[in-house]
Amino acid sequence: MVTKKKNCDIENCTQESKKTVSREKAGSALKEAGLDVAIREKKTKIHLCAEHYRKIKKKLKKDREIERLRWG
Ligand SMILES: [Zn+2]
Q1: Ligand 1 center to residue 71 CA distance, Å?
Q2: pTM of the predicted model as reported, rounded to 2 decimal places
Q3: CB atoms within 10 A of CB 55
């Protein structure tokens, strides 16, 4: 059986992906959140389900704030 829907790339997550983020951007946020990406290939994009996206979205924002502090 073939499904065309993409699944979340987080390990052990079987939910349908809703968002795509760049791996570079999401890398540290995922690590901080304690999430592992299941893909082994050198992909530049990661597919995330709504739940996981929400989790790292907060971290992405925090990263930006830290950067601003560093420069300010
Ligand atoms: Zn997920």
Answers
A1: 33
A2: 0.73
A3: 18
Q: Which domain holds residue 47?
A: 19-71
Rounded to whole angstroms, the Cα distance separating 10 from 17 reads 10
Per the domain annotation, does 4 fall within a domain? no
Residue 3 is predicted with a pLDDT of 54
Q: Cα(38) to centroid of ligand 1, in Å?
A: 10
Q: Is residue 3 part of a domain?
A: no
Ranges of the chain with pLDDT below 70: 1-4, 62-67, 71-72
